[in-house]
């Protein structure tokens, strides 16, 4: 199995991408177990998903969205702290030798999906906030888009969920000036 990169490297980016994808999927009221399972599988997770898992994960997604919607680092930190209030002490796991060693803040390797989702997201969002001293992501600024994103880049603060939304916003602004 490959050796993971530094803490703020590949593993943080992977959890950030999975978190944003899950929050965006769970924002849709018609998202059910099948769609959540697809998102998880796209990120290498194979746990079964039941209807009760989806509803509990939807609650966690709302708390994660609050972090990403925060306008200031202080507001984001308060939302991250609220998210982490349900987390457990950090522990290392390799999932019985099936993965590389990594940190978990859920209760055990068989914790409910919502607990795992909130705990892993909270840990990554806390790391990103403390590393950059700014909110760790946002809600897309493009007109008509409410997707969230988590900013793992080292450049300036992101405002859009994708290049497509950024381009649409620039074109819209250009046309408004014309």
TrEMBL record:
Pfam annotation, one family: zf-CGNR
Domain Zinc finger CGNR: 139-177
InterPro entries: ABATE, ABATE_dom_sf, Znf_CGNR
Domain of life: Bacteria
Protein name stated in the entry: CGNR zinc finger domain-containing protein
Species in which this protein is naturally found: Nocardiopsis flavescens
């Amino acid at each position: 199995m490959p050796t993971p990169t530094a803490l703020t490297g590949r593993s943080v980016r992977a959890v950030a991408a999975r978190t944003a994808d899950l929050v965006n999927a769970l924002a849709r009221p018609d998202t059910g177990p099948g769609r959540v399972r697809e998102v998880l599988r796209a990120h290498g997770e194979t746990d079964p998903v039941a209807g009760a898992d989806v509803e509990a994960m939807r609650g966690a997604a709302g708390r994660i969205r609050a972090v990403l919607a925060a306008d200031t680092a202080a507001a984001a930190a308060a939302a991250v702290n609220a998210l982490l209030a349900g987390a457990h002490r950090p522990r290392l796991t390799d999932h019985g030798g099936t993965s590389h060693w990594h940190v978990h803040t859920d209760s055990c390797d068989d914790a409910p999906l919502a607990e795992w989702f909130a705990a892993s997201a909270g840990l990554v969002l806390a790391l990103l906030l403390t590393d950059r001293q700014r909110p760790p992501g946002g809600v897309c600024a493009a007109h008509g888009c409410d997707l969230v994103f988590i900013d793992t880049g080292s450049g300036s603060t992101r405002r859009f969920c994708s290049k497509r939304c950024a381009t649409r916003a620039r074109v819209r602004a250009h046309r408004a000036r014309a």
